[in-house]
Amino acid sequence: xxxxxxxxxxxxxxxxxxxxxxxxxxxxxxxxxxxxxxxxxxxxxxxxxxxxxxxxxxxxxxxxxxxxxxxxxxxxxxxxxxxxxxxxxxxxxxxxxxxxxxxxxxxxxxxxxxxxxxxxxxxxxxxxxxxxxxxxxxxxxxxxxxxxxxxxxxxxxxxxxxxxxxxxxxxxxxxxxxxxxxxxxxxxxxxxxxxxxxxxxxxxxxxxxxxxxxxxxxxxxxxxxxxxxxxxxxxx
Length: 236
Fold this sequence. Notes:
It is a single chain. The protein is built from two helices and 20 strands. It is mostly beta strands. The radius of gyration is 21 Å and the shape is globular.
């Protein structure tokens, strides 16, 4: 009888633990996009909590993996999928406060089209109890192109380069003369816009003096105001 009661108490405790933290959504749908940050933030309900997470499963094609990153509230991880399900540790998520977790994709130049998914499993710090999962379903229906004056052309990702990366004092953005790019916007890993700059020269220099250390994304726009490419950089 004692054993049965003990098992019931353990089962009840496990349910309580699972109820302590929730994501905004269990499934996020991303339609026909080549770049972007897709948030599925995490909110602890009862107390501050530190989590571990790993890629549980994915159907992403090989050429999608290279353009995939996940960012928790501590850092970003690139080229995410591995068969060993390597766990990553977060910083503490604060009670009743929505904390960042996001999928960042840059599928410029990929050849594989279709709908695929990637699922992330979150555990306690012992990496033994699965608390919840988040699944991102991504649809890429058409090749990513830029649109000039009445003409659609495939954008060459080599038209833009960033250096040095990681950047310390300054970041140089080099743009090919033939590229139809007129401005760039910088976002932090939480999707908040930090700066916006016009593209006026082949070489564009950005001072890092006002940037906190961390990972950022630059989104580039053509003359029609259409986003055509994203690049990722780190400020030390």
